[in-house]
Design brief:
Blueprint lengths: L9 E11 L16 E5 L4 H12 L12 H8 L4 E7 L5 E8 L5 E9 L8 H13 L6 E7 L6 H7 L3 E11 L20 H8 L1
Parallel strand pairs: 5-6
Antiparallel strand pairs: 1-6, 1-7, 2-3, 3-4, 4-5
Amino acid sequence: MSLIRVPDEQIATVVTSLQMVERPRPRPAPSSQLGLRLDRWREPAPERYRTLFQRVGAPWLWFSRLVMTDAALTAIIHDPGIEIYAVTDPRGVEIGLLELDFREPHSCELSFLGLVPELTGKGEGRWLMAQALALGWRKDVTRLWVHTCTLDHPKALGFYRAQGFVPFARAVETFADPRLAGVLPLEAAPQIPLLGASVATSSAR
């Protein structure tokens, strides 16, 4: 067994894909203890979408939608096969994101599902997942799937499995650290070491 070195300016993560191929048995849906609700976003403006995407995903280095051009991002988030929901609190503040992808026939991907870190451990993730399953399992859907990686919350993989998802594939992904590229702030995701920080600091002077 040997180790493969990852360059300082790169990040490596193990991606696990999970799926359900049967609709789960009906069970009481958990309620939101904080009064959260889902608001459907129909054809949101790219900047509005990016703002929420970064608010929810920056702590886990979500960056894929931040580096797209407006045209490329709009083509996705305005596609009729994509459904986007903002999670809002009773004050109307947007604190979570749910995105469902129905573009593949008979399939639904939970493309993005997350809440701001302040809600971790408060049970709202179970509420959001219940909403996702209810919306994803349409009458013509026979497969619902999602992927997570080792950059996500440490409990993410166990959470998906507890909801009934079964792992079916694993891959290693490497990419340029979005903090060093200026896509995300240098202070984002402090739990993930920033090995090229000296390069970023010197170039900012």
